Every structure is written in structure tokens, then in C-alpha cells.
Sequence to fold (1293 residues):
Amino acid sequence: MRKILLITFIAIGIQHLAVAQDFTQGFEIGELNMQKYDKDTAAHAVFINEFGNSKIDVTNDDHIRLTYDYHAKIKIFDNKGLTSGTIEIPIHNGDNDGEEVTDVTGTTYYKDDDGMIQKIDLDPKKIFKVKDYKYGSTVKFAMPGLRPGCVVEFRYKLVSPYWDRFRGWEFQDDIPKIYSQYEVHIPGFWTFNASLRGALKLTKTSSELERECFTSHGAKSDCSHIVYALKDIPAFVEEDYMTSPKNFKSAIYFELVEFTNPYNGVRTVVTKEWKDIDRQLKIADEFGSQLKRKDLMKERMAPIIAGKTDEMDKAKAIYAYLQKWFKWNDYIGINSNDGIKKAMDAHTGSVGDINLSLITALNAAGINTDAVLLSTREHGNINTLYPVLSDFNYVVAKANIGGKSYLLDATDPLLSFGLLQLSCLNDKGRVISLDKPSYWIELSSIQKRSNTSSLDLTLLDNGKIKGTISNYYNGYEAYQKRKSIKKFNSVDEYVEDLDAKLPKLRILKSNITNLDSLDLPLGEVFEVEIDAFSNMNREHLEFNPFFWDRITTNPFKLTERDYPVDKGMASDSRLILTMHLPAKYAIETHPQVVAFAIPNSGGMFATSFETQDDTFTFSNITRFNKAIYSPEEYPYLKELYNKIILAEKTDMVFKKK
Amino acid sequence: MKVFITLFLVLLINVSASAQDNYDVSLISKDLLPYASAVVRNKEVSVEVKDYDNTVYHIKTAITILNKNADDIAHIVVWHNKSRIIKSIKGTVYDQLGKPTGKFSESNFEDVNAGDGFSLFQDVKIKHYNPAVTSYPYTIFYEYEVKSKQSLDFEDWEPNSTTGLAVEKSSYTFSCKPDFNIRYKEINMPVKVTTGTDKQGYKTYSWQVSNLKAIKDEPYSPDKLKYLSCVKIAPDKFSYEGINGSFTNWKEMGKWIYDKLLASRLLLTDVTAAHMKELTANIADPKLKAKKIYEYMQAKTHYISIQIGIGGFQPFLAGDVDQQNYGDCKALVNYTQALLKTVNIESYYCIVQAGSQKVSPLNDFASMNQFDHVILCLPFKNDTTFVECTSQKIPFGFLSSFTDDRMVLACTPEGGKLLHTPKYTAQNNLQLRKASFVLNNEGELSGTMETVFKGTQYDNREEAVEDAPKEQIKDLKKEYAINNLDIQKAEFKQDKSVHPVTTENIQLLARDYGSSNDGKLTFLMNAANRMSHVPREVRNRRLDVYINRGYTDEDDITYTLPQGYQVSLRPTNVVIDKPFGKFSATVTLNGNQLIYKRRMQVFDGTYNKDTYQDLVDFYQAVVEADNDTVTLTKGN
Fold:
């Protein structure tokens, strides 16, 4: 599963290496003649070679910059591989300063219609820069003259003002690589931690000392020159129900530990231990300072909690108030860059703005509340070996009330008190408070989803079934159901749509309860009439007791998996069907009474059946107790679905007496 | 002096009264609320052509957002580029009572590049802003002015084309200098145009609608031009990106496109021309020559969309594509045309509205904005052939459901010609399946299955065909809803003729296909082609039922039953025959073989709106029949 290897610089300081080794520009005839990649004959394209070189250096304009040179050569085998010839380089824009891509060159080598070897260069006019949003742009270009069998080679330079975010390197991509090498040059003024992710082992690491590689205005330093290389890297194949591919792709990442200002010698320890981060966060303008603005919130919250004495009542009132107060602007992050006052006044802000406001407001009302930093599922897992602040991209509140704690996110007005979005249920969160050391909490299996349906139905002599269907939704299930109901302008429109989607069923009366009382289970009661049987003169009537909610295909189709199945939370689903039959029918075939389980209490499916006079009661329960199933547990999970489908396939048969 | 002051005051009052409408939400008529998540209170679009290269759009909108679902409608998006410049944007937010609560201006807007999801680059940017209002309902008023440097392409006026949006009042005014002549087309408009002259002597054309209820999606709806209100406007004389022109009908428009945008783009090098001649030297039949060149083009190029300036209407140079090997639909069609020209094969550059939904340009109204794609027509005598140039694998002469059965405008040196692309009928669009399965006493299914795809169903397996065997099996497992499906072998064959055929052969195994209970074995008759979706019912349907494209599916499955088992329960045969479709499912027993035959046919066409419930019932019956099971019992 997740492998993070800590590589210290001392450990690899011994071995010597030659000078920086970018591969030679140009192609070899064998590369043009290559028909298939032997190690993965299914590959549409393969990296023949890939080279990256990053260094912290002083640029011509006398700024300290991170300079990254990239060089790649890709063999394209067939039409589907042509997409590998369109290059997109995402870059970060700051408010005043940003990353820039320069010196883009590219060449395509191919055999023309007469079998002659030709080459064509990338036209610099055909390189485009697109601004995607405030903080992100993409540099794009399409390599010229592509055709199956060609080899493309391109390089570019990326200059970044963010030397504190030293560039990582993804060894693994969605096409295989024959060889990939990354070199870094880090002047002694800086210290970084490097961590390796993924299942693959480095083929080569070596390091050497470069003498006086960094000089600027009299400041001098040697550099660590380190080489990381991997060969025969398989393509990364994504699977369904997995979290961020970033968790599994083989890659190397860097995190700044400390640096010394080359000009005045002042040393800044960035990452040492959590206590350093705690201190840093506590004084940060965009984080700790905002959490201290209790006075700002005290006044605003006073009318909200007026007359309330119970902490829980106060907390719920403030949470509900801020959920409605804010309209989230779709930006995520852990900080409140413009401050919570501005966000409050504007009624809008990022995740950081909104949830730091919430934490401050709760504390202002006397409710002990901490911040929890987390990384969303898409963003990937957290490095827990040492503190990496950039691993976190989301913040929520943790209100501590009556010995229990509740995680709160005010960006979504439909989340009930203590419920988080699925995207936040990932790995671990770090609890940050203004007065205590920070600590980890588990986030991956903290909440559940459950629903219960109870059907009380009567089969009438005319072939119709009448009765009531009651559904109750709890936890995340209720959240999602509320969301789907709220997509309609009114409850009536929701019920009308539901009725329209079920042509054989008519909803005669409906009652939706607790739609806006988020902390209570959501209920739906429908009085229904179903056109079940058009002909009641038949000897046998077939009836499927799972008709209301039936699984017909197995979501898991692969024979085996490489990565865990991550559903984010446990689930529990029950159905109780009570049915009254007309006097002239008796049950000939009853539903299967079964019980299946996944080892180690991983989950289960069970049914029960009882009959009394003309009435039978059939109930079943499906339960998945875990949020994450390992590849070893996968076959059991898949088989449980198979059993459920088999059981749900069998019809009941009623026979005329 | 006194007089003057009074006059001034009166004027002031007048101005503020007319500028400031009352946006109190309670004033919205109750009739407009059903299915509406937002209501346009008043929208005024004014388009003013001051000169051929100077058109000013002025848009004022007041819209009440009733609930969160309409936040998207409140999101203001204005596109711009070098030839379309935003002069001003500003707005005000009002609360439920119609009291102003805040203002916004251009500095609140974020400016980013527009993305259409498939282009590498477009020179279009958007300014956008989403007012942060959290108590519903609320009203936003905004106005903006855009200056456009062209007078060819005017946006259609569609006062109510979004579901969930009702309209209190909406108006459109087109004005132009006296010597600027336009044609206009009113489609489903409840009112006719009002014409006049404004105070600066410009000609004016105005339309206004009021009290339009929110439209509701109805499945199987015809094209929106059949029922939505719309006004289209086109100039007689215009300027576009520095090119002047004029047209009043399709013939003239096609001529202008050919002369001004295409004629100069066809040049190729002598080397390429010689190569084409050489490539086709031994072929006499011009159609086979064309096919050879088309396949050469397919093997050489791939689709990449880059749209800059006039490039929105004009292709890259053929010589550029020859070098770069890529282009968008315009560039690739133009390139193919240039290649064909080197061996003296005539072809037409045809503009079309692409997509599975068949849409044709209006017969009697020529304008540029009725198209979004280009294909090539080869006008062989009695054998007009159309080709799609953006795919590396589509067969010569086959258009697929992307551009079939619709009118296109061929832009030729003689002028524009409206042509019709081939139609693939229900009888052509086939999926024919024959399977021979063995079911054992544990419910395990094994056997082989052959499926033939033709017509628009030809490309049902297009994704899988080019994949490696391992990936093919993964794709197919998702294609077939057979529990525990294990595909031991999969094979595809393709006949890439004008009437192409894909043949799929599968050897499969599925444990627990049948479920055993109480000495009985139950299994689904229809293993491979079950319909699961029934269109939803529609109360008070307004629109005719439109079936866009027909098809035929045939499934023949023979099950060899396990020894010692008897059929104890089997479904009754189902036969349904409706004007829009036919369905039958039959089961016959022959010794220990159970033979299942399913026929499903849907016919394209427009049917009366009263047919809709029939259609729902039809699909419901099909879904039920597709879930029919057979039960076997051990013993005699």
C-alpha cells in the first residue's frame, strides 16, 4: 500500500558520481524502428528517456529562483498514443509573481511515406499559455508531424519564485517509461527532506558535493547534487473506487526543513517538528491571528446564542447560522488570506475563510473548538513521518462539547452537525489549537451512512398492490438524499419526478419529514398503488421482494486488484417488507434465507423470512463495516456482492390455493 | 431660475422612476412559479450596428433567484477577445423586498481563458462573477456593454431557452445605420416585430415577450427550434475580421465562404502533389482513388483544435497541415480537399451542425451561426459520398451518428448548395447476436457469443477495438451485465467499407449465472442485452414525441440445460407492435435446449404527443420481459 521512504542526505553522501547526465539529444535508428514495447505490449506510447534537473540558483535578474529543466523523448506506437504528443505544463500564478516556462523546443523524428527519416521542429508560435483560474495557468503545445511510429523529443525550462516548494518528480505516468532520471542541486543554505512514494524501488541514487556552486553578492556555498533514477517503470493503471492516484504512483517529493539567508546568515527552521509548525501557525496572519479574533465574533454571535445556556445548543445555532451566512467561493485551502472579517462582511470566502470564521465564532461563544487540517481524498494521503504543511489543503472545525468532539464544515449548508463531506474523509487530520500541542486524529472511518426501508403492502384481488413505503435515512445517506431532493424547487416537484420515474407505481400521498432539520433522520412516507399483476387468473404469480431497491450488477469486475477499495465510510442498509396476500393465494416459493459475511467482521448480508396466516414478513440487511478494503480482502468483497445479487435474483412464487 | 430648478427636479424624478424597477419578489405572478428556480424580471438586449466594424451590445438584466438551484443562472459570464471588447459591467443586488443590498463592478470579475473541453487553445476569454448572496430569494440587476468589431455574426435572441427559468418581461432591439440592411427570422414568436426609426435616425427592429412559464424537460423532445421562441438576424452586407462581404441566401453565403475563406487555403507543395499522383497511379476508378487518398490523410493526421481570430471560420493552410500533421475539422477537410485536388478529384467543403441529435439549417434563412463542424463531400456522378475527416479510423464514406441524415451547406466555387447526408434507417442500424451457452447444474454459464454491429451501431465497440487484448476484456466486462463474467477470449473483426461491419466474438464463463434454491435453478433468459431504463412519465405533455434515430437488435441464444433438469417455469412469450417500435421475446424448448429469441426495433420519426404514454408503457414492458427468468427443477 502506501510506502513513504525517508531518504536522508547523509546516507547517500558517500557514493560519488559523474557530472550531470542529461541524455543526448537526438534519436537512434532503433527507436524509430521499434514496433512495440516488449515489457508492455499493450502500451500505445513509451518514454524512452526522461530527464529532469532542479537547482536553486540566482537568475540573471538577481533573484533566487528554482530552475527546473525538463527533457523527454517519447516513442509513439499507434493512433491512441498520439495524445502523448500533446504537452500540457501546469504552472502556478501568484498575486505578483509566478512560475514561467521558457526555452521550449521540440522535434519530431519520423519516417516519411518513402521510408526516409525526417525531422520537424516545434514552431515557437504554436506554444500557448492559458489562464485557467486566478492561481493556475497551463502552457500547452502539440508536437508537429506526429504519426504512429514517430519519436518526439522536447525540453523546456521552468523558473519558479517558490524555492521553498522544491519540485518533486513523478517517476510513474499513465504510459510506461524505459528510464527516468531526476537530479537536484541544493546549496548548503537550504535543507530539504526527500520522500519516496509508491511501490517501485529506485534503481540508482547517488550524490556528490559540488564546490561553490552557489555564489551571490559574496555569499558562497557548496551544493548537494543528488541523482534519483528508475528504469523499466510500468504504466500506472487507475482502478475504480480508489483514492488519489498520487497515493500510489511512484514519485519523489521534497519538503523544506530549514534555510539560511545567504546574505545575512539568518537561519530559519521551517520544518523541524510539529511544535515548530504549531508555533508558526499560531502566529501566522492568515491562520492563528484569525483564530484570535474572538472579539470580532463575540458581538456577532451574541444574538445567535441569546437565551441559550447549553453548549450544544449554542454550537448548533452558530454552525447553522454560519452555514447560511456564507456562500463558499469554490476555493479550498487552510488559510484565510484576506482575513475572516472581510469574509464575514462579504458573505463569501474559501474553505479557510469560512471554517476559521466558524472556529473563532464557536470559541467566542465559549465552546472549546480546534482547527483540523486535512488533505482531501483527491489531494492524497499525508506524510506522517515528519510534518509537511503543504500536504494539507482543507481545514474544518473540531468542537469539543461534553467530552465528545464534532467535526464541522460550514461551507455546505446541507451538512448536519458533525458530518463531513466524503472528500474530507481521508487518512488523518492534524488537530491544531491555540493553547495545546497538535496531534493526529483518524478521519477515514469516522462516519457512517445508513438507511432503512419498511414496506407494508397488500396484494389486492384486482392484481394491484397498495400500501405504504417508509424510508429513513441517517448520516451521510440523509445528506445525499437531502441534496437530491433540494435539486427540485419544491418537495411536490420531487415527488412528482419520483412518481414519473416509476411508471407502474403511483404515489397517492407523500410525507417528507425533517428535510430541513439536518440533525434528525430524514424520512419519506409514500402511500402507493402498484400495478403488479395484470392477470390474476394465473396459477402462479411471481414477485420479487427486492423490487424497491435491488442490486443487479456487481460493481467489482476485476479478478484482482492492486490498490485498496476505498468507500470512505461504512454503510448499513435494511429492508423490512410486510405483505398481506389475498385469501386465494399461498406462498409456494419463499425468498432465500441466507447469511453471508466477509472475514474479520468486514461486512455481511442476511435475510429472514416469517409467515403467519396470509401475511409474510421478509427482511434483509446489507452491511459494510469498513471504509477501506485491502486488495487481499477484495475477493471477499466482490463475492459478497455476488451472493447479494444471487439472492435478489430469485422471485417469490404465490400459488393459487 | 426657479423654473429651471423645477424642471430639473421633475426630470430627476422621472429618470429614477424609470431606471429603478420594483424588484419586490412578491410582485411575481404565481403563475410563473411552477418549475421555476429563477424568474427574469426584465431583460433588455440592445444591438446597435454603428458601422460595419462597430457593433455595440448593451445588455440589462434583472433576475430573481428563488433558490440555490438557480445560483448557476446568477453566475454572470461575459466572453471577450481582441475583436469583442467589454466596455463596462456593473450591477446591484436586491433582497426579497426589492431593497438594494450591494453593488458590484468590473473589478469583482475574474478574467480567465475560456475552455470548451476539447480545444488546445481558443482566443476567447471570459469575465465572470458569482454574487455571494445567501438568503433566498434575491434579485440581481446587471448591465454591460460590449463592442464588437464585426457585423456578420449576431447572437440569436432566445428569451427563454433554459429549463427552470420563467420570464416576466424580455425585449430585444436591433438598430442600425440607415444603409445597413438585415434579414430576420421569427421562430415560434408570439408577437411580430415592431419597426421604426430612433432619434439618431437608425432603423430599429424590436420584439418583446412577457409572462413565459418555465420550460420543463420532456424526454424524446424535438429540436428546440420546433417549440422555443427565437429571433435570428443576419446582415446583407458585413465586415468580419477585416474581410467584407454580402449574402442573402445559402447560395451567396456558400460562395462568399468559398471565395474569401477557402479558395486561398488549398496550396500544397509539388512534392506532396507528386506523391498523391504516385499513390494513385495504378487506380483508375476515381472513387477508389479518393479512398486511397482519404486513408493516407487518416494515417497521417490527427485532430487538434486551435481557434484564433478568423480561424474560427477559416481553415489552416493545407500546407501547414501537411507539415504539422494536425488540425481541426476545418483544417483537415481543407487538407483532404487539397490532396484530392492534386489528382483532379472535385470535392466540397460542407458545413454542418454535428451531434447525435439531427439538426439542419433553416431552409429559408442563411446565417453563419447554424453550424459547428465541417465534413467533405465527393460529388461522384450518381454516387455522392460524404467523409468525416477528423477521425483516424472511421471508414471512407461512413458518417456515423455524428453527421448522418441532415442538411449541410456545400461551399463551392459556384456558390452554396444545400445537400442531404445519408440516412441510416432502423433496418440499417443493426446489432445481431447469436450465442450458444451451456448451463451446468451449479448455475455456471459457458459458451460463445457472436455479435455483429452495422449502421450507426457499427461503432458500439470503437473504444475496445484498438485496445490490447487485456484492456479489451476489461472494457467488455463493463459492457455486459452478466454477473461474474469471465471472458476467456475476445476477438474483433472490422469491415471498413461504406457500410461498415464490426464483428465481436467472445468465449465466456460465468459462475453462478443461475441461482439455485431449494433444488431449483433460476436464470435470466436475456443474458446480454437487457434494457434497464424506462423514460419517465410526463403529465400534460406539451411536445410531440420525437425519435431521433431507429435501430434493430436481434438476440438469439441457445441454452443447453443441465442433465436431469426440467423446465418448471418459463416466461410467456411477449409480442408488442406499436407505430414507433416492435418488440418480441419468445422461448421455445427443443429437447434439452432452450431457445431464446428477442427482437427489438425502434423507428425514428415524429409522433403525436398522445403517443408518449404508449412509449413509456412499451419500454416498461420491454424492461419487464428482459428480466424474465426461467426456473429449472431437478428430476422429472
